[in-house]
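tokens incoming
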């Protein structure tokens, strides 16, 4: 009889807000790559004026680093989408551990969710940070652009490889653009 092999877990640290310094585990599964501390700190400095009371969408939640950081820093409502089972289970455990009110976790494919869900009111902040090997940036951008997902003036964060190519709609105005190592991260503003 074979012993069950439990996959190693890695920690992710919340940088600011009410859960500042909290370390949470996430499964070390293929493709799961949390946004690094330095990049997250820069991003959330950019987003600081927008977060209190914001409605956020984390399309590829993974470890939850972006969505949990947004909640920690004052977002009212964060929708986290994750299709990988182990990651979703750990996210559910971490949300319970933090008693994270305002978090709505869905075990679903992000693009399928966007195509089958009614937007309701638009999101103030959207995080697009898919697994790099799946090249889902353009499909995500196109699905969001179909209408109704973005509130006026919404911030859209895109994290990709340095050489990743995608095209954004004319209503998305580049606000910030930085690189760290092989990662490029950009913040757009939706101007309807």
């Amino acid at each position: 009889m074979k012993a069950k092999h439990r996959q190693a877990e890695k920690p992710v640290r919340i940088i600011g807000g009410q859960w500042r310094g909290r370390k949470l585990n996430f499964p070390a599964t293929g493709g799961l790559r949390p946004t690094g501390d330095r990049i997250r700190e820069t991003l959330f400095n950019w987003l600081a004026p927008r977060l209190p009371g914001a409605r956020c969408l984390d399309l590829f939640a993974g470890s939850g680093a972006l969505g949990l950081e947004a909640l920690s820093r004052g977002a009212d409502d964060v929708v986290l989408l994750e299709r990988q089972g182990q990651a979703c289970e750990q996210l559910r455990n971490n949300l319970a551990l933090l008693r994270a009110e305002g978090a709505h976790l869905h075990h679903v494919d992000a693009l399928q969710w966007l195509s089958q869900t009614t937007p309701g009111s638009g999101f103030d902040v959207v995080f697009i940070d898919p697994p790099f090997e799946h090249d889902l940036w353009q499909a995500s951008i196109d699905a969001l652009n179909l209408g109704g997902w973005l509130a006026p003036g919404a911030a859209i964060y895109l994290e990709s490889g340095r050489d990743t190519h995608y095209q954004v709609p004319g209503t998305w105005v580049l606000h910030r653009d930085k690189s760290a190592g092989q990662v490029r991260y950009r913040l757009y503003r939706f101007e309807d």
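note: The radius of gyration is 16 Å.
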